[in-house]
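Hello forum,

I keep getting stuck at the same step: I have a sequence, I want structure tokens, and every attempt I make locally crashes halfway through. Rather than fight my setup again tonight, could one of you with a working pipeline run this one for me? It's a single chain of 109 residues.
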Amino acid sequence: MIKSLHNLYSYLHIAPKDLDEILLHIDLYYKKRCNPKKKFGEFQRNKKGEIKYRDLLVPHFRLKSTQLHISELLHKSEFPPFMFGSIRNRNHIFNAMQHLNQTNFLLSI
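Reply #2:
Ran it on my machine without issues. Output:
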């Protein structure tokens, strides 16, 4: 369990000054790349017949590593049953199902 900033930095395998450096210069930690779009193994084309491209921002290894550690930490966390967004095995459909056949609702204007 993370109980302090020191624990967090330790879990993320990053020094506070290194994280500050990434945050201060975040634009330097992404590389722009352009990949051709494919669908069913074929290049997607526009109406003129030109290949469509997807613009990507690929994170630098150091940033990606930190992002993966944060993701691991979040996936290990337990969330209350009323939370649905971006939580594994929960989605807006399950949220809506809980409200089916409800006769009352609160509306704030």
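The mean pLDDT is 90. If your local run keeps crashing, start a new thread with the error log.
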